[in-house]
Amino acid sequence: MAKPKSSFRCTGCGHQVPKWVGRCPECGEWGTVAEVAGVATSSRSTASVAPTSPALRITEVDAQATAAVPTGIGELDRVLGRGVVPGSVILLAGEPGVGKSTLLLETVKHWAERDRTALYITGEESAGQVRMRAERTGAVHPNVFLAAETDLATILGHVDSVAPSLMIVDSVQTVVATGADGVTGGVTQIRAVTTALVSLAKNRGVAVILVGHVTKEGTVAGPRSLEHLVDVVLAFEGDKHSTLRMVRGVKNRFGAADEVGCFEQRDDGIHQVPDPSGIFLHQRDSDVSGSATLVTMDGKRALVGEVQALANGTEMNNPRRAVSGLDMNRVSMVLAVLQARAGLTPIAKSEVYLSTVGGMRVTEPAADLAIALSVYSTVKNKPIPQSTVVIGEVGLGGEVRRVSAVARRLAEAKRLGFREAIIPAATDEELPKGLRILRVGTLADAVALRAAHPADAPF
Fold first, then answer.
1. pTM of the predicted model over 0.85
2. What is the pLDDT of residues 379-433, one digit of tens each?
3. Burial of 441 (0-12, 13-18, 19+ CB in 10 A)
4. CA 151/CA 176 separation, integer angstroms
5. Which fold, 279-452?
6. Which of 8, 147, 231, 459 is spaced 20 to 30 Å from 402 by Cα?
7. Which CATH number applies to 67-274: 3.30.230.10, 3.40.710.10, 3.30.2310.20, 3.40.50.300?
8. How confident is the model over 331-375, as pLDDT tens digits?
9. Largest Cα–Cα distance in the chain?
């Protein structure tokens, strides 16, 4: 028998190092490297153990046992993949005050209205505070049980007495597992609590939704293995200056991981927004220069939005560029291409301001052409018609490159009443009928459309 040898492992990501270090070289976390006892090795093979249940043919496994149960909130079901799967564990993470608790109260209300029992565990507020919020949002139902607990053993006792089919833990960072080392909310405690709740969900078929905190970088707080333990990870996003809230799928073992659900935060609670495109469009009576309509893909969802530009001449050597809702690096690139490839030299001596409407965030390259044409429109003071949408990626050589899902983008634009679209010339998808399609190969072609189409030109 060989002598056991100790090693050191990061409790956050599992990375193993030969000796103790203060900071994990893999994930960069401080104070997470701990010593683990080694296992003595032997030349003899490990003896087999009889399984408690035999392996089944995959055709004999009952698929209905894990069929998704709708929550009653269409936008949430869209992200989850048709609903909540019994025995699954879902992690919902978001910034403080974004509306996580409000959304989950709406979820348990709809769950209880279908003659199902829900248990809401709150570790951050008292039961009275949660009751007051539930009355304000209309989420009071006799099938919803409420308990203010932070001890894991006591929470498991509530599960035994209530026997819920859905349990909410708000939040996992406040729960303490007796016997586990570390402080409340620490790496060891969070892992122990999550492991116990995952075991509970799998053994009893209870769907568990965990509320998680986020770090200042926007990632889920706690060990990285936390996201691997759960079945679904959802990110709840929202701007404090806007009522729009987005639930974005990060990981999903039961459906697509790139779906997005849209909600609106109001005084009486949070409401789903099945058609959010209207929020991102500015309603105006006449055409205004410097405004272009784009269609962006957020996951599998096509969203129609608007980008607005304003250029003011200045005598400064380094004119200011201000951006809201767009990627500053891509905006700088598009401005450089406009000047070098499309001959728009006035922007070199102009302050340029770019913003999206309604708090929309656009980072994909398909918005490049809309950004370029909005800047060209404001410099030349030539409005783009409201009935026109602009789609395309701009390269450094001035070429307009094709983008993905053009047909889906145009279908959404047509549904909202748009009549004309400027798209890359290389697009080879089958496009919907009823739209006037203008294909452009370069940025210079796009800004010269007025000469090519004097009657119906977009400028």
1. no
2. 999 899 989 999 999 999 999 999 999 999 999 999 999 999 999 999 999 999 9
3. middle
4. 5
5. Ribosomal Protein S5; domain 2 (3.30.230)
6. 459
7. 3.40.50.300
8. 999 999 999 999 898 898 899 999 998 888 898 999 999 999 999
9. 89
